[in-house]
Amino acid sequence: MDPCANTSEIIVPTLSDAPISKPKDPITCHVLDLTSGLPAANIAVSLTLLRPRGSSAPFLAVTNSDGRISNWNAQDGPSLISIFEKSHVEPSDGRMVWELVFQTGEYFGEGGTFFPEVRVRFFVEVGEGKDGQGENKVQGILS
Fold it and tell me: Phi, psi (5° rounding) for residue 137?
């Protein structure tokens, strides 16, 4: 009797079988909800470059179950990574101004918040982000 005749085939996953994760964009965010004590999942957020070069088309995303956004969807125009790559070679005053808009009214529901949206403007020094010093994480707390 052949001892190998009744064995099941063993499939060993290889690295090529693993899902490919996209690298983080140069700007990420993380939102916590203090009213629940949990990450703020499913908040619609837009990200727009205001300066230099004028306003970009907004990048859109929704926070994941951990309240994080690691990648943005470009609607029209260049990708977020390409904007950062160009910032290393195009002359500017050394600072980019970005704006995040969190749709808190949709998140908390009708009558659940005083602020229908929260806008946060911030600087990113040219040279930070991809091809520079890493990611620029914006953290928010809702209460």
Answer: -95, 125
Q: How many CB atoms lie within 10 A of CB 98?
A: 21
- Give the global pTM: 0.76
Largest CA-CA distance found in the chain, in angstroms, rounded: 80
pLDDT tens, 117-133? 999 999 888 665 444 44
Peptide bond into 52 cis (omega under 30): yes
- Chain position carrying tokens 């953290």: 139
**Tens-place pLDDT, residues 73-92:** 988 878 888 887 776 655 55
d(CA 106, CA 54): 28
CA distances from 52 to 23, 26, 65, 116, 131 (A): 25, 17, 33, 28, 18
